[in-house]
Amino acid sequence: NAGDATHQHPxxxxxxxxxxxxxxxxxxxLNILFVGDILYSRVFRSxxxxxxxxxxxxxxxxxxxxxxxxxSPFGKVEVFKSLNDALSWADVAIWLRxxxxxxxxxxxxxxxxxxxxxxxxxxxxxxxKFMHPGPVIAGVDIEESLIYSEKSLIKAQVRNGLFVRMSVxxxxxxx
Length: 175
Known about the structure:
single chain; 175 residues
């Protein structure tokens, strides 16, 4: 992934950038929401820095204990207390899996899903598209029947991930 194991995931960020640019043309003024484990997510850290460079507006929605105390390294980040409000704001919502292997406390998956998962009801509130860097934990992050639905960009993320990683490897090998 070209990252440092716990803090960055640059090839996923490039894949996500390509996916959003393919869908919307550019990121300038686009509202991009991150839902889930913001505190421990390598994808959030890489995406947020990259997307800010392209003029995106960033938002997060997560359990309080999974939001970093200091979001200033990522520019201006709006913190949403209500996922429903956040979904009506977002042009793109990116769900992030719970990084349970890094947690110091336990978060029950059923209550997490009821508060922060993409359910059929929330899918209807989502004005834009949604993404997930994988692996999707069906029934915890996203309701299984929605993973490849009309508003999903997950297949495009996977497809772009292959091309981005091939390009990075070629660049490294060719110098």
